[in-house]
Amino acid sequence: MPLSAEEQFRYSRHICLPQIGEAGQRRLREARVLLVGIGGLGSPAALYLAAAGVGTLGLAEFDIVALHNLQRQVLFREADVGAPKIAAALAHLHALDSRVHLIVHEKGLTPENATALFSQYDVVLDGTDNFPARYLANDAAFFACKPLVHGSIFQFAGQVSVFDRASGNACYRCLFPEMPDPESIPTCEQAGVFGALCGVVGSFMAMEAVKLATGVGVPLRGRLLMLDLLAATSRTVRLLKDAACPLCGSSPRIMGIDAGNYSFHNSCCAPCCLAATSGEEAANVFPLEISSEEARVWLARAVDVPLVLDVREGAERAAGHLPGSLHIPLNELAGRIHELPAHAIVIVYCQHGQRSLRAARMLRARGYAYTTSLSGGLARWAN
Ligand SMILES: [Zn+2]
């Protein structure tokens, strides 16, 4: 069906984008997108997707609007406090675009409904805020073979990725094979989250959904976008598929959705994922040591260029160093760790690769999961 004159006018700013055009707008109208959770991330995503002309939006949410939600969950108003989020969302999204077909799933995401629910949609957005739901969404998307737009937030930091079985890229369990112990993770109430961060990450998620639905651009499959809003920095790291992944690896252990694997009691603030598990888990995807040859390739790339850190003494550095490297001697590193941007990809080097290995281990233990040591140090590099 061609677009009506009214649709052409309404979406004219999309249609005049050569990448979207009328064909792209029609694809959006045909698209079926499911939002799992309509809180901090789902709110902005839902607003942008409805405004964009996505034809069918599914809303899976069971929660009630609380006053403290209004600090970031921009879909809701004071008058909604105490009402089911899904009812408030229906009213506001319908007011935004009366033709968007809204489907409610008021039980939210459960192990019992997950795979069948995902099967009804083209794209799923995971805007949940706890680990059981996040692992469930990842696994259900895998079994339903649907692309999953992943977003997570922690204080001022956010992450976005797309897990898509059909493309053969990494899934969430490739990064974090097992769910962490909820006791070990701070809750949202304890850790806090900045309101506008939700808008940034939720909007990124909406954009990824639009890209997947229309086929324009390069979705974040096999890549993780990491944002640090306090430092105003962003970085995209490659996600490697893990052959030993319990879900998508060559000898999978998880063969279906078993409710016992997704304990929903004591759910916690999801976003802490990297911060809480990075040191140990990132080792699965990120090497502790890197050869000179690998480092050269890496440094020559246009994206994901690592920060290079020299941990030698001042006199050694004066005798020669890698251009553009940051200098923090090993014995000062603990006290100056704040000089490294959060989520930085770091290549540490010293003269022979021993001190840098110690430094890399220390940085990983402090949350710099993407840290590697230049094997053999500057001596081998120079050779
Ligand atoms: Zn996997």
Q: How would you describe the overall organization of this protein?
A:
By secondary structure, the protein is of the alpha/beta class. The protein has two domains: 31-277, Rossmann fold, CATH 3.40.50; 286-382, Oxidized Rhodanese, domain 1. Helix content is 35%, strand content 16%. The chain has 16 helices and 13 strands. It has helices at 5-10, 12-15, 21-30, 42-52, 85-96, 114-119, 131-144, 172-175, 188-191, 195-214, 273-281, 292-300, 314-318, 330-333, 355-365, 377-382; strands spanning 32-36, 56-60, 101-105, 123-126, 148-154, 157-163, 223-228, 233-238, 289-290, 307-310, 326-327, 346-349, 371-374. The chain has an eight-stranded mixed beta sheet, sandwiched between helices. A five-stranded parallel beta sheet has the order 9-13-12-10-11. It is elongated. It binds zinc ion. Zinc ion is lined by residues 170-171, 173-174, 242, 245, 247-248.
Could you name the CATH topology of the largest domain? Answer: Rossmann fold
Q: How many domains? A: 2
User: Termini separation (Å)?
Assistant: 65 Å
SS-based class: alpha/beta
Under CATH, the homologous superfamily of the largest domain reads: NAD(P)-binding Rossmann-like Domain
How much is the radius of gyration in Å?
22 Å
The set of bound ligands, ions and cofactors reads:
zinc ion
CATH architecture of the largest domain, by name, is: 3-Layer(aba) Sandwich
Number of helices: 16
Poorly predicted spans: 265-284
Q: Can you tell me the CATH class of the largest domain?
A: Alpha Beta
Strand count = 13
